[in-house]
Amino acid sequence: MIEVMAVFGWLVLFLVFLDEVLAVAAFAAWGWESSLLGVPSWILVWLLPVLAASTWYWFASPKAPYGGPVLRPLAKVLVFGLACLALWDLGHHSLALALLVFSVVVNALALLPGIRALTADPETGPEGAHPHLRWRDLDVDLTTVAHEHGLVG
Whose CA is closest to 30, among 80, 85, 77, 81? Predict the structure, then answer.
């Protein structure tokens, strides 16, 4: 049972990564097909994905230097929302809606405490953890716990 939840958690985190890659690809496609403010498409095809990835790194990634309880969700909505609008603008309405639904679902699942704990800092634990409790102090042998509770044979 414990391993199934860990596999599910890592699957969700992989899907979040895939979602980020899809958003960057949407920006690249938009850059290739458009000419914003007279900037040639051969520049936009590189510039827009770099701007999206940089925004993600600085504000939305798990270890973002400027992320926080307000900026992190705002940056995620901005990046994924604009990626969906880019696909919509390109005429890919079904893909835009699919990316929107996929983004909302996988990012909502990634907020579950058990999944957030998978990427937690070993010293501080998941974001929002008790400030006087170090994550490494919670070292538990899951095999022993599973045997004690009859979860494994």
Answer: 85
13 in Cβ contact with 110 (< 8 Å): yes
| HSE, side-chain direction, 13 A CA sphere, residue 115 | 18
Q: Are 80 and 74 in contact (CB under 8 A)?
A: no
**pLDDT value, residue 133:** 39
137: exposed, middle or buried (C-beta count within 10 Å: 0-12, 13-18, 19+)? exposed
- What would the DSSP string read from start to end of 27-70? HHHHHHH--GGG--HHHHHHHHHHHHHHHIIIIISTT-TT--TT
Q: Render 72-139 in DSSP notation, one character per residue.
A: HHHHHHHHHHHHHHHHHHTT-HHHHHHHHHHHHHHHHHHTSHHHHGGG-BTTTBSTT--TT--GGGG-
Q: What is the pTM of this model?
A: 0.76
Please name which of 52, 117, 121 lies closest in space to residue 83, comparing C-alpha atoms.
52
* Under 8 Å between Cβ of 18 and 75: no
Query: What does the pLDDT look like over 98-118, one tens digit per residue?
Result: 999 999 999 999 999 989 888
| pLDDT, averaged across the chain | 84
